[in-house]
């Protein structure tokens, strides 16, 4: 049986979370929701100085063609959270840095670098103006460009920013360095004060509040970045009641990126958010799932395919994509659904590959 409204746990699974139910569905024994009926949901913690890419390769530049529809260039919007209040009490005016269309690349100065683990760092880049916010809709990414000395063509890579969209002045990328990877190596070699060319937005899955009743997010490695952007956007919107389940696979405990931010979402919204972690090389004290993301685990924790209004999102390295959903053909072609999700009865329309 798939996890239905009661989200039953599968006893054989070695998970510290044991497919725990949402608090609103556990009956009288459930812990009371952290914020039963707040006027507005608590936002995810603004990341201290966090993913590499949100998925895709150099071919991702084709997304830029679609960005014009999202740009509208030079529009302004009000944000109490982002801009703060003026002396007169009125909210400051903020504006988006990335407007798409014919804007071109912005040369952004690197302000801060924070080590996350042995091969991943968080890079904070200053926006052109202090009152600017990235201006990226959910779910979308940016495109980074780098042309090394002697390179015939520039290298292009998409990344999903991880900072709070309401925080003005900067955009933050979480980048894993891959052996021989020209873009990730270049970014990891940047020093504060140097610049990187960035363009956006790159539109992906067009999200609107309550578009689905329940979504499943299956990620591996830095594939967690578009998942986190989507989940955070949902919970920042007081009108969006979507339930979110994350299944996140990594090699080791140190590779679990954005774990603090995910745990805060889980603690703040226990009625609607839960996360399951899978480690290939788990330490002795690990009580979660081990090995790879299995059919048994997905069948137990994901919304079942016969549900009326669900969506499953997948993002990770090629091996994970092939096993779980099949790889997408190109940024505009999702390809056929295969792998575990197809075996479990999900349809192509129920799955989106970042």
TrEMBL record:
Major enzyme class: oxidoreductase
Primary localisation category: mitochondrion
Entry annotated with the keyword Flavoprotein: yes
Entries under Gene3D superfamilies matching the protein: Nucleotide-binding domain of ferredoxin-NADP reductase (FNR) module, Translation factors
Role of this protein: May mediate the reduction of outer membrane cytochrome b5.
PANTHER family from the UniProt entry: NADH-CYTOCHROME B5 REDUCTASE, NADH-CYTOCHROME B5 REDUCTASE 2
Name assigned to this protein: NADH-cytochrome b5 reductase
């Amino acid at each position: 049986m798939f996890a239905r409204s009661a989200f039953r746990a599968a006893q054989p699974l070695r998970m510290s979370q044991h497919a725990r139910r949402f608090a609103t569905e556990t009956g009288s024994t459930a812990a009371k929701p952290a914020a039963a009926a707040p006027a507005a949901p608590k936002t995810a913690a603004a990341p201290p100085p966090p993913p590499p890419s949100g998925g895709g390769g150099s071919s991702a530049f084709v997304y830029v063609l679609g960005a014009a529809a999202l740009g509208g260039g030079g529009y302004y919007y009000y944000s109490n959270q982002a801009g703060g209040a003026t002396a007169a009490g009125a909210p400051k005016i903020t504006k988006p840095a990335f407007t798409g269309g014919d804007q071109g690349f912005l040369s952004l100065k690197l302000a801060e670098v924070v080590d996350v683990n042995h091969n991943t760092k968080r890079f904070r880049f200053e926006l052109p103006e202090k009152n600017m916010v990235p201006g990226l809709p959910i779910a979308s990414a940016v495109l980074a460009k780098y042309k090394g000395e002697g390179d015939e063509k520039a290298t292009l890579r998409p990344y999903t920013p991880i900072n709070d969209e309401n925080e003005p002045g900067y955009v933050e990328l979480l980048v894993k360095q891959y052996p021989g990877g020209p873009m990730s190596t270049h970014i990891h070699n940047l020093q504060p004060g140097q610049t990187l060319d960035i363009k956006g937005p790159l539109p992906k899955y067009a999200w609107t509040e309550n578009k689905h009743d329940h979504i499943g997010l299956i990620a591996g490695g830095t594939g967690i970045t578009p998942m986190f952007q989507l989940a955070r956007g949902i919970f920042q919107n007081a009108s969006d009641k979507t339930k979110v389940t994350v299944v996140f696979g990594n090699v080791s405990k140190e590779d679990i990126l954005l774990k603090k931010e995910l745990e805060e979402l889980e603690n703040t919204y226990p009625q609607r958010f839960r996360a399951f972690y899978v480690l290939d090389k788990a330490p002795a004290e690990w009580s979660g799932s081990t090995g790879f993301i299995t059919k048994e685990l997905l069948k137990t924790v994901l919304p079942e395919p016969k549900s009326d209004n669900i969506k499953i999102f997948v993002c990770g390295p090629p091996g994970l994509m092939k096993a779980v959903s099949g790889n997408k053909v190109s940024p505009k072609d999702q390809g056929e659904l295969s792998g575990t999700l197809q075996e479990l009865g999900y349809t192509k329309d129920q799955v989106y590959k970042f």
